[in-house]
UniProtKB/TrEMBL annotation:
One of its GO terms (molecular function) is RNA polymerase II cis-regulatory region sequence-specific DNA binding. Belongs to the krueppel C2H2-type zinc-finger protein family. It comes from the Eukaryota. May be involved in transcriptional regulation. It comes from Octopus bimaculoides (California two-spotted octopus). PANTHER family: FI01424P, ZINC FINGER AND SCAN DOMAIN-CONTAINING. This is C2H2-type domain-containing protein.
Length: 216
């Protein structure tokens, strides 16, 4: 029998298990009569048991387990498990950061990144390594960290065979072979293989500006 989530008029949520497949409603009989509630299906992941309010959300969640990333960035060729994440990623290339931290003013391309960032201020680290006890603000950080203990490097370069613990690092590595440099310095027009190289380069311009100010 399929689980459904019934939302009552006071916005309290109760889980029931009787769903009319025809009317898609759940009827609760009360002393003074009956009342029909609006229902919302729950879709369950058969791998980890987590529940979702839509089949689309469940499909995207399953990609965490399968590693499937069907949405590819046409700028840097990185791939993502959902179109929403891809849209947020493209903001980094465009320099858009519409989500701002009210504590320190730092901005992010995605709201999810802002939420994770706020844990720096709160000190909250929900994800703990069972091997060494180290804790992380996000699960992906824990998953990557655990590979230090296991030595696992599941992402291999199909050109030279070198392996990496993270798919994102493999993506950057492949640019060594392709010569791709998608990160542009807007000051001098020079291109770089990754954002960290661009950031390091931009500091040289900051030094040039300081020298110019002293000369003036």
């Amino acid at each position: 029998m399929e689980d459904v989530k019934v939302l009552d008029s006071s916005n309290n949520t109760t889980v029931f298990t009787n769903l009319d497949p025809v009317t898609q409603t759940y009827t609760v009989v009360k002393p003074l009569g009956s009342e029909t509630f609006t229902i919302q299906r729950l879709y369950h992941c058969d791998i980890c048991g987590k529940s979702f309010s839509s089949n689309l959300n469940l499909t995207e969640h399953r990609r965490f387990h399968t590693g499937e990333k069907p949405y590819k960035c046409d700028i840097c060729s990185d791939s993502f498990f959902s179109n929403d994440v891809l849209i947020g990623h493209k903001r980094m290339h465009a320099g858009e950061k519409p989500f701002h931290c009210k504590i320190c003013g730092k901005s992010y391309a995605n709201n999810s990144d802002l939420i994770r960032h706020k844990r720096i201020h709160t000190g909250e680290k929900l994800f703990r390594c069972e091997t060494c006890g180290k804790s992380f603000t996000k699960n992906s950080g824990l998953v990557t960290h655990v590979r230090i203990h296991t030595g696992e490097k599941p992402y291999s370069c199909d050109i030279c065979g070198k392996s990496f613990s993270q798919n994102s690092v493999l993506g950057v590595h492949k640019r060594v072979h392709t010569g791709e440099k998608p990160f542009l310095c807007e000051i001098c027009g020079k291109y770089f293989i990754n954002n960290s190289a661009l950031t390091t380069h931009q500091k040289t311009h900051a030094g040039d500006n300081s020298s110019s100010e002293k000369d003036a």
